[in-house]
Amino acid sequence: QPVKGNMPPAAAGNLGYTPPDGGWGWVVVLGAFISIGFSYAFPKSLTIYYKEIQIFSVSYSQIAWVSSVMLASMYAGGPLSSILVNRYGSRPVVMVGGLMVSAGMLLASFGTSIIHLYLCVGVISGFGLAFNLQPALTIIGKYFHIRRPLANGLAMTGSPVLLSTLAPLNQFLYDTYGWRGSFRVLGAIVLHCCVAGSLMRPVKTPQVQQKSCASEGEGAEEKADKLLTKESQSTSKGESCLERFFDISLFKHRGFLIYLAGNVFMFFGFFAPVVFLAPYAKDLKIDEYSAAFLLSIFALVDMFVRPATGFLGNTKWIRPRIQYFFSFAVVCNGVCHLLCPLASGYTGLVLYSVFFGVAFGMVCALLFEVLMDLVGAQRFSTAVGLVTIIECGPVLLGPPMAGALVDMFGDYKYMYYACGVIMLLPGIYFFIMHYYNYKKLDEEQRQTSAVTMRTCEEAER
User: An example Gene Ontology cellular component term from the record (predicted)?
Assistant: First the structure.
């Protein structure tokens, strides 16, 4: 028998039913495209209002915390969102999330202090975005298995598409209505998340899969866990229900731990290069419009790379070892940042923006697909909730720490060198650890096959 205590293998993706891999699933992808797009693009697009919000007599850095708190709340709300998705499904959670974001923006429009904005935009709307992000990611795994990388790549494209749409729209709203009126209009626009949520109808599954709380959602991976660890023999029905909502056993899952350790380190240098791209160009005496255009180039490339990455990840050559593809994408980000300070003039920064857009888009398209590949679609909701709450620290602290390097050295190039190293090291780590993980998985699969064969032979005798 397999050695007791071995960590469970990566999931094969068996949900106990055959995902449709199409049909209404593509409508669900559209809903996820909208929901994920607002989740990531909304906090970034609000920077256009920072200047007028200074009427509260606060510094620019204090205002910048509005978006940071919003992103951190979105990540911190992951576990709660996962629990609600496991209990009620994706559709109602996304719709409630859209209402929360809308209510937060409406309340913020009556704000009289920066603290008011922190609470309304940062906390209320931030948690609303959490209720949009995780359910949208989770339901894709319910509808797709064979075409899942492509579906995830298309859904993740919502972020650059909506960001490129919201940026000019916010400028128009700002010029027409001021920040208070704009926040009310945005509160109405974000109600589209409720429409997106309404599209996420549950997958019709065989009734045999829904007999009890303890057995509901038990697929191939859960059976593998029982075979390898025997832990399920000592748990009561109540504990099984609790584990379904908040699966702490994931911290014993080899693939999950590999993913978590690398991503936590990686996120310290993931967003800062985007945040400081335009300021870096201005520091090199490039005019404001040309500096801003670098972000447009980056976003445009990112927009096309994400679905292309999903298509490549779905091919028979890459899908079986998709973790290596993700590792390659992370390494590419690191190399881009290390070479950025060597770029000379505006042409060099344009080339950097193009290559950075390619590398960044690849990572974003694969970020959640590789987690689903490791833990399986059935445990993904809990896994992504645990990952996001742990990652909220690096997401919140990464850009300020990068800014501290700029202040310390008075030069942006050291910040880009640091981010390059921070991205390169986890990329190399992913290559090494996933080679080890794939090797162990092959060994465990051979052991399981041998046990099954012996059992069949004994049964025949």
Answer: basolateral plasma membrane
In this structure, the number of other CB atoms found within 10 A of the CB of residue 450 comes to 12
Model pTM greater than 0.85? no
Number of H helices, E strands in the chain: 20, 0
Query: What is the maximum span of the chain, computed from C-alpha positions, in angstroms?
Result: 84
Question: What is the domain partition of the chain in residue ranges?
Answer: 19-203, 249-445
- CA distance to 224, 234, 336, 360, per residue, from 332 (Å): 35, 46, 6, 9
d(CA 308, CA 327) in angstroms, rounded, equals: 17
Report how far apart, in Å, the C-alpha atoms of 350 and of each of 174, 234, 300 are.
29, 59, 12
Residues 370-415: pLDDT tens digits? 998 998 878 888 888 888 888 888 887 887 788 888 888 888 889 9
Single-letter code of the amino acid located at 155 = A
Structure token pair of residue 363? 């990572």
> Which one is the CATH code of 19-203: 3.40.50.150, 1.10.8.50, 1.20.1250.20, 3.40.190.10?
1.20.1250.20
Nearest 5°: phi and psi at 5?
Answer: 105, -15
pLDDT tens string 245-293: 567 788 888 999 999 999 999 999 988 888 788 788 888 888 877 887 8
Q: How many CB atoms lie within 10 A of CB 313?
A: 23
| DSSP one-letter code for 56 | G
